[in-house]
From TrEMBL:
Main location as per UniProt: membrane
Subcellular location: Cell membrane
Protein name as catalogued: DMT family transporter
Top-level taxonomic group: Bacteria
Gene3D superfamilies in the record: 1.10.3730.20
Pfam family, one: Multi_Drug_Res
Family statement drawn from the similarity comment of this UniProt entry: Belongs to the drug/metabolite transporter (DMT) superfamily. Small multidrug resistance (SMR) (TC 2.A.7.1) family.
């Protein structure tokens, strides 16, 4: 279970870093750029711990799904970006895929 906590923390810092990426203005703004690099570095460090107990493919599927959902919400609420119906359906299909992997795959480590 602790490996999934590392994965959750890795996802959180990846989303934080990605949220600052737009603010870096192509890395011309130092503070957002530093926050981006540090957040992503910490994210991958935490992911390396998660991979001790979660198969890489499963971890990446979870990472991707949660990252897409959360960063889409950040885009909507912080940057006032919107998603059309095909984008929303695509995100839903990604989530359904991760749920299927975690519920039915023998590859998933629980």
């Amino acid at each position: 279970m602790k490996h999934y906590l590392f994965l959750a923390a890795a996802i959180l810092f990846e989303v934080i870093g990605s949220s600052f990426l737009k603010k870096t203005e192509q890395f011309t703004k130092p503070i957002p750029s530093i926050l981006f690099v540090c957040s992503l570095g910490l994210s991958f460090y935490l992911l390396s711990y998660a991979l001790r107990g979660v198969p890489m493919g499963i971890a990446y599927a979870i990472w991707s799904a949660f990252g897409i959902v959360i960063i889409s919400a950040v885009g909507y609420f912080v940057y006032k970006e919107s998603l059309d119906l095909p984008a929303i359906l695509g995100i839903v299909f990604i989530i359904v895929g991760v749920v299927i992997i975690n519920l039915f795959s023998k590859s998933s480590a629980h």
